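User: New here, any thoughts?
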Amino acid sequence: MQGLPFIPPAGADEGGHLSPPPAAFALITADGVLVGWSPQAETLLGYPASQVLGRHATDLIATSHAGRDGAEEPRSDQRLRLGGTRSAVVDVRHRSGDTVRVAVTLHPLTPAPDGASSDRAPSAVLMAAELEALRWWETRQAMLQGLVTQSPVTLTIYGPGARLLWANASSVRELGGDLTALLGRSMTELFPGDVLNTQHLATPPEDFVQQILETGEPVIDVHFRGRSPADPRRERVWSSSYFRLLDGRGEPVGVCEQSIDVTDHYRAQQRLALLAEAGARIGSTLDPSGTAAELAAIAVPQYADAVLVDVAAEVLDGEEPKPVTAWDLVRVADSDGEASRVSERVAYERVAYAAGSSQAESLARGRPTTDAVVAPTRLYVPLIVRGTPLGLVTFVRGDDSEPFDDGDRAVAEELASRTAVCIDNARQYRREHTAAFLLQRSLLPRSLPELSAVEAASRYLPADSHLGAGGDWYDVIPLSGARVGLVVGDVVGHGLGAAATMGRLRAMVRTLAELDLAPDELLARLNDQVGKDASDQDGKGEADGSGALGAACVYGIYDPASRTSTWAAAGHLPPAVVQPHGPVDFLRLPPGPALGVGRLPYEAAEVELAEGSLVVLFSDGLVEARGNGLDAGLDRLAAVLGEHRGSSPDRLCAQIVAELASDQVQDDATLLVARTCALGARQVASWELPSDPALVARARSMAAEQLGRWGLDDLVFTTELVVSELVTNAIRHASGPIGLRLIRDRSLICEVSDGQHTSPHARYAGSEEEGGRGLFMVAQLTEHWGTRYMPTGKTIWAEQALPAA
């Protein structure tokens, strides 16, 4: 029967199961004859007194069992032996014929005085009770005795005013004193502490005890946190339930409190909740100090009273931590708690841990350590990733707090492990972020060239988000004929891939610009190259994000001699133009697809710019502010340009950044401001010549006379040779009128134009050949030469350095 539940006998009184079962009494003589029979005996066996009195007691016994002394009891043909109290379990015949198992006890009576006894005098009292009912009552009595003396559950009875009336042994041990000395004290005096689940208890303990006494409604599972008088150093949590007690008349006599120590369960729940919160909050920023501050904010005050986080200096710089013997770290978080407030102080101060210290030992062994003698409430946990320590976390508890136990160490290790991974991710991001910025900065112009065509200034604004360096770029490109190329571009995406793609595009634009391509043709060729790059990557299965799909660009050429500019755009915003004494306007350029996403042709638009005009090129990151539309950003830019149009380009850049960049948070931005200049009549001389070989000498003479007026007599000889060779080639290989133009800028530029699109090239002529040396001589006599093409033909140009003043 071991392990089976005890089932009360049928008919057990559920309302009075703590009362003993009714006992049946019988009186027997010395020879075992029944001479007395109680009503309870009649109820138990069904026999009235008239049917049993005078009969031998053993006549009612069906079987016999061993008594408690081990002796065999007599059967019905044997006589009961008197001589001391005897107990046995006996099967007795019921009047109905059934057998009733009863527990019997035989108590001898004191013999009567000599001469007073007779054969009919009772010699013993026989008590009997149904065995199962007796066992049921004895079990309940044992249970009550166990609750009072042995149970770990504390049972306490409070009367009005929540004052102690009674407590079991476990409760007395918790109260830490003698029960007599504790009686009459209030609940809050006995157990001062916090109520954790106030949804069950909205009133003070004294009030809710009185409420239970009056209403009889129980209160279940109230959690208290505090310190018991028996163990004041350890904070514990109890789960308590309360119910009313009634006396035999149904009147309330008190409220019973049943409490169980659930400290371990509660702490386990708190630790799981803490780790869940840590998983959700730690690592939200890609910054080592920010991650350390997140750890401190989570751990204080629910896990520790203060947290210190120290990280290797090289980790903050995005580098791999170096193996060291004397641990020299940087403090990045120092947090403590006051009530529910958490203060964070990031000092970035150097912290050195001497060899042999608990901190150094923790870092060297890679395990949490405590200083059990000096600081038992300090726990040192290393921040380790892939077996390499990145730093150290120190968890501190106050002197009145409990020391860290094994469960606390496991939680600390998990918190430190998550923090270490996030700090390492931040380190790697910072390394890539820094590399991307360095790459981007190295690919952008370090300074803008000084040109006669424009006075220019620029700004690059990195995104102030965690996205990293972007793909915006700008450039000012000197072109032949004192012209200048202005370009701003934007590569979709951020990081090393975007920065590398930006560098490739800028290099391609410069290369194509030096071929003197028109803006629309330059964008067409750039688009073709981007498409080829994308196809090559797709064919190799690469997906590194370094492609230029979605890149945008706007490119323009300004000629200071003719004061004309030509522009084309590939999915980019058009420049803003401010003519002297004119309104702020945004150029209306023919729309062109972004680079790499289409094969539609690009078209150019020509705009005449008066001297002193402002041309402002910008990427969309400058005007697409968070929460505002593009039109609002363009309007703000136009307002700034209108108000500060007289400022220098550099000052105007600063004004634009101050007004617009405060909202720029999601993307990097590029700004290029150029004020146009013009070459006057004293700097340019041009002639149109018929295609007649006889006029070559006239062309040389006109060029020499112009150089004399400019005071450039030292360049007359070489210039005459250049003019002679270029004009002769134009007459020989082209048709129609020939243009000759001299430009005195930072160099002397000689240009000869014709109506043909054939491409000339220099070559080595044989020793016996009479011609073929013209362009070779031009290349030897000048610093630079080249060809640019126009819709009406081509222009061959050559530059010579001006003599030193």
Notes: The chain has a mean pLDDT of 82. The CA atoms of residues 335 and 402 lie 19 Å apart.
